[in-house]
Specification:
Number of strands: 0
Largest sheet: none
Distance between the termini: 84 Å
Helix content: 55-70%
Structural class: mainly alpha
CATH superfamily of one domain: Ankyrin repeat-containing domain
CATH topology of one domain: Serine Threonine Protein Phosphatase 5, Tetratricopeptide repeat
CATH class of one domain: Mainly Alpha
């Protein structure tokens, strides 16, 4: 007699169970768990199937299919969960069975933070925002996977998942594949999320070359946070990226370095020049090419706007000479004169 011959006749099925060995009964027990057939599972147990077979594999089988009642019955029957509860939670998360996941966490003590919050990664890459929020609420860490989950979510355009991670403290400054969260949002054209990150109170989110390269000069001259008054020039100075500002000005027709941009103050009173001095980038701001035809303005700005502590970063005599050489070259293009190029 085979299972096919039995059909829905429970008496025949019970007789068949009596003819099976333990391994066969255990196999049918797992299949029944996947199907959520608790009645059949009870009869298999009565026939000799092992409740804890495979380290509690029946719980994992039921969880992955979303059979909450079966999972609960297994626990009530005394199934040992030490070896299976984490795997069961992982399968429930992968399948999006949020009620089962909640049961496993709250009543079976499955740990959503186990193994660097692996189940949260599963929810993130499979775009399950409600599941991600549940796991975060129950203790999974938004900083898991080296704090890359926010960027990973944005790289897949999973905005709701990304929002959950940000709500629970994910750090937008962290990088994934050389880009931070703002850059990923911009890369994927997620305008609303880009704005949310742009308004984030900690403007260190911008501290990467990719951010500055994506902005126009007009945008970089603007205010980046309503709670603060730092411009993109301040941020580039602090991030060690002022060479990008320089190159944008040099590449733009009719643009020039403006003294007012360099003298603009942050809330604490520090000017862009002060930030450049602290980061060792004053020579970049006083590249002779930025001040062609404006030697006196450049030298006056150094004298009046740069702290004596940082003045040694700029060779004023060489700067003046290079600006003069640029003027001479402009008047006599045939001359083979090439001014030095300070800065990196």
């Amino acid at each position: 007699m085979s299972v096919v011959d039995i059909g829905d006749d429970e008496d025949k099925e019970d007789d068949y169970f009596k003819s099976c060995n333990t391994q066969e009964l255990n196999g049918m027990f797992l299949n029944s768990a996947r199907e959520g057939d608790w009645g059949r599972m009870e009869r298999l147990l009565a026939a000799g199937a092992e409740l804890d077979y495979g380290g509690g594999a029946a719980l994992t089988a039921a969880a992955g299919q979303g059979h909450l009642g079966t999972a609960r019955n297994l626990i009530q029957r005394g199934l040992k969960t030490a070896l299976c509860k984490q795997e069961a939670l992982g399968d429930a998360v992968y399948a999006g069975k949020i009620d089962v996941a909640r049961f496993l966490i709250e009543e079976v003590q499955a740990d959503p933070a186990f193994n660097d919050s692996t189940v949260l990664w599963t929810a993130v890459v499979n775009n399950k925002p409600d599941m991600a929020r549940l796991l975060l609420e129950k203790g999974a860490s938004a900083h898991a996977n080296r704090d890359t989950l926010l960027c990973i979510a944005l790289s897949h355009r999973f905005e709701e998942v990304a929002a959950a991670l940000l709500d629970f403290g994910a750090d937008p400054r962290k990088h994934y594949r050389d880009m931070n969260a703002y850059e990923w949002a911009a890369e994927e054209n997620l305008a609303e999320f880009s704005k949310r990150l742009r308004d984030w109170s900690n403007t260190d989110v911008y501290m990467s070359p990719g951010f500055f390269m994506r902005q126009t000069l007009a945008e970089l001259r603007g205010i980046y946070d309503e709670k603060q008054t730092r411009t993109g020039f301040h941020l580039a100075a602090q991030a060690g990226c002022f060479d990008i500002i320089r190159d944008k000005i040099l590449a733009a027709s009719g643009e020039k370095m403006r003294a007012e941009d360099l003298l603009k103050k942050a809330p604490g009173g520090q000017t862009v020049l002060g930030a450049l001095g602290e980061s060792g980038q004053l020579a970049v701001a006083f590249d002779a090419r930025l001040w062609a035809g404006r030697k006196e303005e450049a030298l006056a700005l150094i004298k009046n706007g740069v702290s004596p502590t940082f003045r040694n970063q700029v060779d004023e005599a060489r700067l003046a000479l290079d600006i003069d050489l640029l003027a001479l070259r402009a008047r006599a293009p045939s001359l083979k004169l090439k001014p030095s190029k300070p800065g990196p």
